[in-house]
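re: that chain from earlier
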Amino acid sequence: MRIIKATNTDKDRGFTVKLKEFFKKYGKRSIAIAAGVLIIGTAVTLNLVLPASKPAAAENNGASGQAGKKEEEDFFAASALNRTKARDEAMEVLHTVVDAGTDREASKQALSDISRISSDIEKEANIETLIKAKGFDDCIAVISGDTLNIVVKSDDKLLPNEVAQIKEIAYKSADVLPDNVVITLKK
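^ sequence. v structure.
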């Protein structure tokens, strides 16, 4: 006796045909580049959003007052380092896309992203310098699209005039509307 199995080859063929048409329309390289940029964007966002882990040296420090100060300094240094590492990785991928040069549209988009990231780096540095010049011990600024997140080190609660000064710096330096500026206090 012979057993014949029914297969869904028609469904499978329809899917494979659609998949082949999709790759022909958009190109394998363009899809890979878009996926890479998406992955890097996610990595940058996660590096900036997730808190930096505490170094072992700060945990084992015997003097609690010094440990607190060291932890605060480590927070700002670690945040700046994480931001720089994430941006460097993104820039490396974007430069790879530009250097490949096979897809003009992808190269054009990569150059645009490189320009935007470079501009954001410059704006963030200016904002941090100007905020520190206003008397704050330390700060870190992160531009994410139309939003600007600023973490300011201060022992006291921020006064309304200090918040206004920070938002004015953000507006003048990065053209970010005051409603889109998020200020976080780190003691």
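The helical segments are 9-26, 28-49, 56-60, 64-100, 104-133, 160-174.
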